[in-house]
Amino acid sequence: MKLLKEKVMTEGIVLSDQVLKVDSFLNHQMDPVLMREVGAEFARLYAGEKITKVLTIESSGIAPAIMTALELDVPMIFARKHKSLTLRDDILVEKVYSFTKRETNEITVSKKFLNKDDRVLIIDDFLANGEAAFGLARVVEQAGASVVGIGIVIEKSFQPGARLLEEAGYRVDSLVRIASLENGTVTFV
Ligand code: 5GP
């Protein structure tokens, strides 16, 4: 996606060889025009797939996910993050290790919002090791629903997430793919 690539080039801050900061348009301040384009692109990629729900994880996935859901005319659900939780039987729970926070959170989705007939498109802001996407996929599968695909705004292709998800049989669509963040520079695939 040209507009997204330009944003990453002009506003992305390389924090290390592993981490890109994009807090001016995605992770803190959000660019609604860009998010609308992102939503339109995911909707185009999944047109005809009979998606019934878009699922993401709070908080940075919410903007791209809601714009995608708006385009596809389906509800959007965001999994909530908790550090610890008393188990309740009306929620789906999975453990997810956070790449940026370096801690394990439990993510939860209310059972009433996912059922076995749902065809779910998972959306997230970044893909690194795939922990968040695998956790969301497990939530969908716990509900007996189907993961149709995983839409990622920024994939760091030098980390193993995309490969692991594809090896597990998931369709992955990333709008930009970064080959390297070495020497403080963003290099696209
Ligand atoms: P994964 O679960 O694939 O290892 O990492 C993806 C999650 O970690 C995303 O939900 C995102 O919030 C966060 N993340 C991973 N890498 C980066 C990065 O380089 N920059 C930012 N801002 N977030 C990242």
Based on the model shown, name its key terms.
PRTase-like; Rossmann fold; 29% helix; glycosyltransferase activity; binds guanosine-5'-monophosphate; eight-stranded mixed sheet; 5 helices; alpha/beta; purine salvage; cytoplasm
Describe the protein's architecture and organization:
This protein is α/β, with parallel strands linked by helices and 189 residues long. The chain is built from 5 helices and 10 strands. The protein has one domain: Rossmann fold (3-Layer(aba) Sandwich). The strands form 2 sheets. The chain has an 8-stranded mixed beta sheet with strand order 5-6-4-3-7-8-9-10. Strand 9 and strand 10 form a beta hairpin. The structure holds guanosine-5'-monophosphate. Guanosine-5'-monophosphate (5GP) binds next to strand 2, strand 7 and helix 4. Its main location: cytoplasm. Homodimer.
